[in-house]
Write a structure and sequence with these properties.
With 371 residues, the protein is mainly β. Helices cover 2% and strands 43% of the residues.
């Protein structure tokens, strides 16, 4: 089922696209030349549509440091919002294993379980993952969802729910001090209805900061929640379930960058770690250009952002200080979609050495290493 890494490398060899001339400063993507298919992400139960990608910061339980965790949004029938599994790829052995199979009808999670791009692992070994569930694969039966806390053996420990959490969706940004941690997550489920033609855009999606306390040997406890941004567009969609703010990446100065998919832009939320009120939709960093409905975000070692596109198979590099879009690179050039790779890309995470990144391709349900 997997395409060969040779084909991928040949297809992508000429895919580095500078936005302007050769005088531009070199970006991170200019150093990326190889794309290696590592593994299928489909576990034994047949779950599909890999979404979140994170790299383990520590060894704990089933997980070894630098393992790559990937969750699935679809079930074996390819219905969205019904995926319940997290798989673990171990680079040292090149083996895939099942980390967690969460009960589909988890009573403490409103509507059940459909795992999203919202996932993080704490230094204390706890894994937090978002659920935006459905009963029929569409938002017509969408539940409110929750955040699910798993121990490092993959067992459900607790869920986090409340009025600020509805469809936790975007890839999490994280500050982890061990005994305390702060997670940032976007929520895209407020008042979203069925995926009819020309479904209305609802301007209610938020970004929530959740502060946690973790005592040794005990579950994380929420100590504070703050809506630090709101008013983003969210929309039910027949093909991709829901469209809303997806990517979250935290800068060293405490600025949180958010990919606003509906408005095809990246925005900045200043003082995200300390602010006590919402910044609304923040300050626009960059819009349109190479962006084609930006999804997941990550921060490169040179302080640039990488954003995966939903409407083609490119990843885009952005200087968040100047707002300049530096390069785009085709990382999924599958011509079965129009444009190539459209709808295939979701999560992205830097490798521990900062020289490459992991991403997933939905068209072949695979984890890929770019380096």
């Amino acid at each position: 089922m997997l395409r060969s890494s040779l084909f991928a490398s040949l297809t992508l060899a000429a895919s580095l696209l500078p936005l302007s001339g050769f005088a531009d400063p070199a970006g991170f993507l200019e150093t990326v030349h190889h794309h290696d298919m590592l593994t299928s992400t489909v576990p034994e139960n047949g779950d599909q549509n890999p979404y979140a990608v994170i790299v383990a910061p520590v060894s704990s339980g089933k997980i070894q440091k630098d393992d790559v965790l990937v969750d699935n949004f679809n079930d074996k029938n390819n219905l969205q919002g019904l995926g319940t599994t997290i798989v673990d790829y171990r680079p040292s052995t090149k083996k895939l294993s099942l980390f967690a199979a969460i009960p589909r009808h988890l009573a403490s999670c409103p509507g059940g379980v459909g795992l999203t791009t919202a996932m993080a692992m704490l230094k204390t070994g706890w894994v937090i993952v978002g659920s935006l569930p459905s009963n029929d694969g569409t938002t017509a039966t969408k539940g409110q969802g929750c955040l699910i806390v798993l121990d490092s053996q993959g067992n459900v420990a607790k869920t986090i729910t409340g009025p600020n959490i509805n469809g936790p969706w975007g890839n999490m940004a994280l500050i982890d001090n061990g005994a305390t941690a702060t997670v940032f997550v976007s929520n895209t489920g407020f008042d979203v209805g069925a995926p009819v033609d020309d479904a209305p855009v609802v301007r209610k999606a938020n970004v929530l900061r959740i502060e946690l306390a973790i005592e040794p040997g005990k579950q994380p406890v929420v100590t504070k929640e703050t809506i630090i941004a709101d008013g983003f567009g969210e929309q039910a969609d027949k093909s991709v379930f829901i469209i809303g703010p997806t990517g979250l990446a935290l800068g060293q100065d405490g600025t949180l960058y958010v990919s606003d998919a509906i408005d095809n832009r990246i925005v900045a939320i200043p003082n995200a770690t300390t602010r006590t009120e919402s910044a609304g939709t923040g300050k626009e960093v960059t819009k349109d250009g190479l962006l084609q409905r930006p999804l997941a975000l990550c921060m490169t070692p040179n302080g640039h952002l990488l954003a995966t596109n939903a409407l083609n198979g490119q990843v885009v590099e952005i200087d968040p200080v100047s707002g300049k879009q530096i390069y785009a690179q085709w990382i999924d050039a599958n011509k079965a979609q129009t444009p190539p790779g459209s709808g295939d890309l979701f999560g992205i995470a830097m490798t521990p050495d900062g020289k490459g990144f992991y991403y997933v391709e939905d068209d072949v349900n695979a984890l890929v290493l770019a380096h």
